[in-house]
Amino acid sequence: MQPFLIAPSILSADFARLGDDVAKVLSAGADVVHFDVMDNHYVPNLTMGPMVCQALRDYGVTAPIDVHLMVEPVDSMVPQFAKAGASIITFHPEASRHIDRTLQLIKEHGCQAGLVFNPATPLSYLDYVMDKIDVVLLMSVNPGFGGQKFIPATLDKLQAARQRITQSGRSIRLEVDGGVNLDNIADIARAGADMFVAGSAIFNTPDYAATIQAMRVELAK
Ligand code: DX5
Ligand code: ZN
Question: What is its cofactor (predicted)?
Fold first, then answer.
């Protein structure tokens, strides 16, 4: 397994002071910036686009930016986010007509590519594209909002996804997103995840460094 990565979801950050809040969470020990893109079409909420990603890069954010596209259609957003400084781009297979083509598009634009699985989306979407994937992202809530409760069935699904990754022999990240907190992060790691998105569990605490450090202690258990 690769080293654990903690990826705060900036959906719960202070949008009026986004650059400062992102800089603060990174200096508190976060590894990756998780960037949730919602279009009020694929999901019932509206967030931010490539301009905001570019603005973070211009502000001096050098950490990897993990762009989670909850948009439909997907393809037109890929070149824009690549240009705006995305490092990883993940999308929901239901939102793309041509999954293989979208994965290729992401790679052609120099980003790492991943598929996102909603709680009830089967892992069989991985069957013929494992060689084109860098990240498997399992949603542990239904996408659209921060601050929801972790869906426990995700733990079995994580184990199944981990098995597929091991069988592939490739160093694919297994990311989990939704309701991750200090109480469940150790169980989630034991089920096979190695990249942890946490929004409210980090940004709704007064001391980000203490929270991230406490998460690392849980992960070491
Ligand atoms: C939900 C988003 C998540 C969300 C996580 O659609 O993809 O990244 O912000 O937030 P928490 O950690 O609060 O569940
Ligand atoms: Zn997300």
Answer: a divalent metal cation; Mn(2+); Co(2+); Zn(2+)
